[in-house]
Design goal:
With 301 residues, this protein is an alpha/beta fold. It folds into two domains: 4-203 and 285-300, Alpha-Beta Barrel (TIM Barrel); 215-283, no CATH class. 41% of the residues lie in helices and 16% in strands. It has 14 helices and eleven strands. It has helices at residues 4-9, 26-34, 48-61, 77-86, 102-108, 120-129, 152-162, 176-184, 194-197, 206-213, 236-246, 251-258, 262-268, 292-300, and strands spanning 15-17, 39-42, 66-71, 91-95, 112-117, 133-137, 143-144, 167-170, 189-192, 220-223, 230-233. The strands form two sheets. It has an eight-stranded parallel beta sheet with strand order 1-9-8-6-5-4-3-2. The relative contact order is 0.14.
């Protein structure tokens, strides 16, 4: 397929893998890129030296373009950006913050930049900041979401009306039908998280993958809205959060419940009771193990 997203990133198919914490290591990124999509390494769960290792390992495993996803609220953001430049990463997807500061820096070093947004208003600001593409992510998505709670298929056409640069749709895209629907509504590519998070090459724990593949409709909820909204699988931890929110818990109390390393405990270490299990609503449509290449073949068949 030849369109603006494919030309921008130098890829065969306009399919981008989400840069998900604890799921998106070099093996997954390389597998997606080798299959014709764009693989992303998720820097949000990596210390700087570990990120460098994943970048170097990914480059050794593929001769195709790949990128890094960087949450801009990352505490060691300066170190991360320097490593990305030093390692000559060609593409960066940013999220969770304003793109104004780092977009010029990255583009000065010849790096393509895309930014994830949850509203048309933010999309306009991204275009003004000089990004090369925008990812419009609806609240169906897993992990951390915007506060607007706008669905993907309402968000894509709204964003399409207000920007001229390439548009990528994300959130709830997992089937051939939803893939095609995103294009009908104005997207020129899709970013897929949940289905890749549960595939063979994902670095998520096997117990996490098995739990999420068995979810039914309504098996996730958007919680932690006073902190950073996250879509979570129902378990002991998420029910404790929901109970606290229902009684009007303060931000400090929610932070205490959340603690530290909760996502690692759930996604990477496989604690299905007390871990923070982040996954998208569309997990209810994923029921079997498959490779990254299988996913791309299914979408473009």
């Amino acid at each position: 397929m030849e369109n603006r997203v494919c030309k921008l990133f130098g890829i065969e198919y306009p399919i981008i893998q989400g840069g998900m914490v604890w799921c998106s290591g070099w093996r997954l990124a390389a597998a997606v890129s080798n299959a014709g999509g764009l693989g992303l390494i998720g820097a949000g769960s990596m210390h700087p030296d570990n990120l460098r290792h994943h970048i170097q390992s990914c480059r050794a495993a593929t001769d195709k373009p790949f990128g890094v996803n960087v949450p801009l609220l990352y505490p060691q953001i300066e170190d991360i950006m320097e490593i990305i430049v030093e390692e000559r990463v060609p593409i960066v997807f940013t999220s969770a913050g304003s793109p104004k500061k780092w977009t010029p820096f990255l583009k000065e070093h010849g790096i393509k930049v895309a930014h994830v947004v949850s509203s048309a208003a933010f999309a306009v600001k991204c275009q003004e900041a000089g990004v090369d593409a925008v990812v419009a992510e609806g609240f169906e998505a897993g992990g951390h979401n915007g506060r607007e709670e706008t669905t993907t298929f309402c968000l894509i056409p709204n964003v399409r009306q207000v920007i001229d640069i390439p548009l990528i749709g994300a959130g709830g895209v997992a089937s051939r039908q939803s893939y095609e629907a995103a294009f009908v509504l104005g997207a020129e590519g899709v970013q897929i998280g949940t289905r890749f998070a549960l595939c063979t090459e994902s670095s998520a724990h096997p117990l996490f993958k098995e739990r999420c593949r068995g979810l039914k409709e309504g098996g996730t909820k958007l919680l932690l809205k006073k902190l950073a909204p996250a879509r979570l699988v129902d378990n002991d931890f998420s029910r404790a959060v929901e109970s606290a929110e229902n009684r009007g818990a303060s931000e400090d109390e929610l932070r205490e419940i959340l603690g530290k390393g909760r996502a690692k405990k759930g996604i990477f270490e496989g604690d299905l009771s007390e871990g923070e299990l982040e996954i998208g609503q569309v997990a209810s449509m994923v029921s079997k193990e498959e490779s990254a290449a299988d996913i791309i073949k299914d979408l473009i068949k």
